[in-house]
Design brief:
This protein has 23 helices and 19 strands. By secondary structure, the chain is of the alpha/beta class. It folds into four domains: 23-97, no CATH class; 99-181, 2-Layer Sandwich (GMP Synthetase, Chain A, domain 3); 208-313, 2-Layer Sandwich (Beta-Lactamase); 317-483 and 522-558, P-loop containing nucleotide triphosphate hydrolases (Rossmann fold), CATH 3.40.50.300. Strands 13-12-14-15-11-16-19 form a seven-stranded mixed β-sheet, with helices on both faces. It starts with a helix and ends with a helix.
Length: 560
Amino acid sequence: EMAETQTPLSTLLIKHRYIQPGQLEELAEQLKSQMEEEKQAGSSIQSILLEEGVLGENEIERATEKAREEGIRFSQSILELDLVSLPKIAEIFKKRFGIDTVMDLGTAQIEFQVVNLVPDNLMKTHELLPFKRKGKKLHLAMSDPRNSTVIRKIEMITTLEVVPYLADRRVLLKRLEEFVVAPAPVPGRGGAIAGDSPSFQQLLDSDSAVKMVNKIVEGALNTHATDIHVEPQEKGLRIRYRIDGMLYDIMTIPRDMGIPTVSRLKVMSGMDVTERRRSQDGHASYELNGQRYDMRAATLPTHLGEKVVLRILDESSLLKGLNQLGFEEGPLNDFKKLIHLPYGMVLVTGPIGSGKTTTLYTALSEINHQSRNIVTLEDPVEYQLPGINQVQINPKIELSFANGLRSILRQDANVLLVGEIRDAETAATAIRAANTGHLLFSTLHTNYAVSAITALHHLGVPRFQIATALQGVVAQRLVRLLDPDTKVAVKPSPLAQKILGIDENTTIYEPGRDSTAGLGTGYSGREGVYEVFVNSEAAQDAIISGESELDVQRVAVEKG
């Protein structure tokens, strides 16, 4: 109408009653004031940086030129040129404009429902991302948090009050790539996971990734799985559960759900969803039927995409007590005596996934008393034990098993747990602790109990120190149990008779085919099988004399 009638815009606005006649001058003044304020604000950042000696005139000119050429704000230009740190810019924005800065956008847990409140085109065009909703307030990360026009537009669309935050544009664009733009597949590498669609809106509705992850996790919990494997394959994302020590295929998620599913898992676990080239570790928790489950997460970049493994940590397994672990009466009594000793070293050995952590945690729970100071050094801390001081090693700050153990020795501890003896330094420090009045528990990866002696010796510990410090060793395995309701009685084959030392009249059992336990495998649960070595005086003499493992074992058996 304005073009056809040559009528000024202001006249048309008044004619169609969009504004009142007296409002026009007021609006013009407000717009002029806003433009002047923004102009002053932009220059004030430069002047503040100059006044404080943070930047020189040449750097200001360089950053200004970059901002002009790329169409970005001056504040983002100096960040991208690494001229000023984000904390310094945050300080200026808070002091000058009263605007906070989101410092942890790269690792912030952002729900898809929150992101989907704002249209994709607005987020991409204006470089912004909603990262949190609290009541009627929408917290918005922006490369230009002083863009009041865009803020008002989003408030109109969402009917929420926008709280703008300054964000590092580089981090913001990476997060936008995760939540708005799905990267195109790399030819021959990762096509199955990267997806073909440019937008999550075209891939899934607002909560389908959340529902998918919930389905995966709850399925694992309901089948008593210990691990969840999320693996990129050519045709999609393969989901496998480890149940009773065995891996089973559960489902394959369509390729276009790959990135949303993996991203959701990473967000749950507190990982940086923008980092795909490096392995990451994280921790998540999940509640089902009133019970809380902790999960340890780890990612691994493969040529087809990111693989994620979740280890489910079921604290209820620690509530059973030593009597429920599966020990026979004799070995159980020996182990109880070992864990109640005032000092010395007690080791638990076995392959990965054999239940060593459960055995040690149960032992600590058994002897946990207010009169004892118990300190653990773990990688990572898997279960929270009330009343026990648990320390997580951290190589980034040089907190290794060896360094941590030296620190713990100055903490007036009665009982120590070292997650694993991996090197000579840790072995030497652990032996010294055991020989100076501490009861020390740890683990080794050996096949037999007496093999721990050889392992310690190979780590440089003299035999006489092993003999005096080592009180006992528990070697263990976990074996699958038959479903008691469906197991089938059969006659043993000649081979079974030979291996088991039984005759043909002995009844043995096989898994039933009609079992619903363990995904229909006929097995239900696992139980520990234990070998306990107690270091007697005769065994000590054999160790010091350099006797073989078989000879040490023979002496131990002869002495009960």
